[in-house]
Write a structure and sequence with these properties.
single chain, alpha/beta
C-alpha cells in the first residue's frame, strides 16, 4: 500500500498527541495516511503493551488512518544505529510515503529525540540503492526516499517553522488521544499519576494548539519543525 503521509513515532500515542489533527485533516481531503510506532510503550508506568496496542488501534480508527504497524523496538533502549535504521527503512520502502512526519528533534522524553534522528536518517538512507532490504515475502525492496521529512512538536515548547490549521479537527484529535485510556487523566484510575496523566497535561496540549492557531489566525493549530527549507513555486502557496 502506497501512502501519502507516514508518521514515524517512538511510542503509541505520539502520533495522536503531536500531529493527530493534521492526520485527520489530510485523511478528510483524501490522502492516505499511516502510522508506524517504533515501540510498544512497554516501559510506561500505566497500562501494558497489550492495552497500548488496543488503544493504538482505536486511535487510528478515530483518525481514519489506512494502516498502523508496530516495529517492536525496545522502549527506552532503541538506538539510531544500522540495525534499527534497516527496520525503519523496510517500513518506508513498504509504504513509499511522499511525506514523513517524525518525532520532535528536542523533547523531554529521550526516545523522542532518538526517534527523530532515526526517522530522519532512515528516510535518507532508504533512497540508497546499495542498501538492500527484503519485504515480508522475502522479495527485494526498491529504494524510496520521501520528498520531505517534518518533525511534529511534543511536550516541550519549541518554536514551529510552520503551523497547520486543525480547527475543524480538534475534536477528533482529542477523541483519538483519549482512546489511550490507561495513559491520560482518569479520575477513577488507581494507577500512579504520571507526567501525562496529570489533568494539566491535556490542558497544556490545548493551550499550545490555541497559541499555534492564534499565530496563523485560526482557532487551533499544530506546529512542525524542518531541517531543510520548504520550497514553494509561488508566494500564494504560503497563504
Amino acid at each position: 500500500m502506497k501512502l501519502d503521509i507516514l508518521v514515524l513515532a517512538a511510542h503509541p500515542d505520539d502520533a495522536e498527541l503531536g500531529c493527530g489533527g493534521t492526520l485527520a485533516r489530510h485523511v478528510a481531503i483524501g490522502h492516505k495516511v499511516g502510522i508506524v510506532d517504533f515501540t510498544r510503550g512497554e516501559l510506561g508506568t500505566r497500562g501494558t503493551p497489550e492495552t497500548r496496542a488496543t488503544e493504538a488501534a482505536a486511535g487510528a480508527k478515530i483518525l481514519g488512518v489506512a494502516v498502523r504497524e508496530n516495529l517492536g523496538l525496545r522502549d527506552g533502549f532503541f538506538q539510531n544505529d544500522e540495525q534499527h535504521q534497516l527496520k525503519v527503512i523496510q517500513a518506508i520502502r513498504k509504504f513509499r510515503p511522499e511525506i514523513v512526519l517524525a518525532n520532535a528533534v528536542y523533547d523531554r522524553h529521550v526516545d523522542h529525540g532518538k526517534g527523530a534522528s532515526l526517522g530522519y536518517d532512515a528516510s535518507f538512507l532508504s533512497g540508497l540503492a546499495k542498501i538492500e532490504t527484503m519485504d515480508e515475502d522475502g522479495k527485494k525492496q526498491q529504494p524510496w526516499r520521501p520528498s520531505a521529512v517534518y518533525h511534529y512538536i511534543q511536550s516541550l515548547l519549541v518554536e514551529p517553522d510552520f503551523v497547520v490549521d486543525i480547527s475543524d479537527y480538534w475534536s477528533l484529535k482529542i477523541e483519538a488521544i483519549k482512546a489511550f485510556k490507561t495513559q491520560f487523566f482518569d479520575p477513577e484510575s488507581k494507577d500512579p499519576e504520571t507526567y501525562i496523566s496529570n489533568p494539566n497535561f491535556l490542558r497544556m496540549i490545548e493551550s499550545r494548539a490555541i497559541e499555534f492557531g492564534h499565530s496563523i489566525g485560526t482557532r487551533y493549530g499544530e506546529g512542525f519543525t524542518v531541517r531543510r527549507y520548504p520550497g514553494v513555486k509561488s508566494l500564494f502557496d504560503l497563504i
